[in-house]
Amino acid sequence: MEKLIKFFKVHHGYSRMKDLRNAGIHTRDIAKAMDMKIIEKINPGLYKLIDYSWDEYLSFLDVANAKKNAVICLISALEFHQLSTVNPPVISIAVPHNTDKFSMKYPPVKVYYYQDTFYELGIEEIKTKTGSFKIYNAEKTICDMFRYRNKLGEDLALEGLRNYLRRKDANLAKLRKYAIKCQVKTVLLPYLKAMVVK
Questions:
Q1: pLDDT at 79
Q2: What value does the CA radius of gyration of the chain take, rounded to a whole number of Å?
Q3: Domain boundaries, the chain
Q4: Which fold, 58-197?
C-alpha cells in the first residue's frame, strides 16, 4: 500500500489504471485500496487518493483530470469569478462540438458542446497547489451567459454583467471585443451602455 500511496502523492493525488499497472502496482492492490477507502474511482480508469491535501477547487480538478479538454464555463465560471451568488449544483463544462459523449457520476457535470470558434476563445489555466484546470475568463463568461440566456435565464447574465462592472479591473474594451466574437454584441451592448450611464 505504501508504494501505491506514494505513487498517487507524486502525481498530485490522481492516477490512471494504466499508469498504476506500468508502475508495477497490481490490480488486486488497487481493489484493496478502494475497499480500504484509500483511493476512490472518479471515472472509468481514473482514481483519486482520498486522504490528500486538496484545496477548494477539488471538483474542478476532478473534471480536469477526467477530461483534459474540459473548460469550466457558464454558471460555474460565473461563480468562480465572483460574478454571481448562485452556487450551482452541477459543474458546467465546455468541450469542442465533435467530442465524444462525456459524463461523470461525481462531481455531476453539465456538458456544453461548443463550436471551435467559441470553445477556443478566452481560456485561462488556473494553477492551484494540487493541480490545474481550464476556465473561461470573466469577459468570455459574461458573453457566454448572454449566448445561453434563454436556457439559463437572462437575470443571471445581467447579474454577472452588473457585478463585473463594479470591479476595479473591469475592461470595457475587452468585454466589447468578446461580445463581437461571441456574436452577442446586439444583445449585450444596450445593457452595457445603460449600466455604464447609471
A1: 94
A2: 20
A3: 2-49, 58-197
A4: Beta Polymerase; domain 2 (3.30.460)
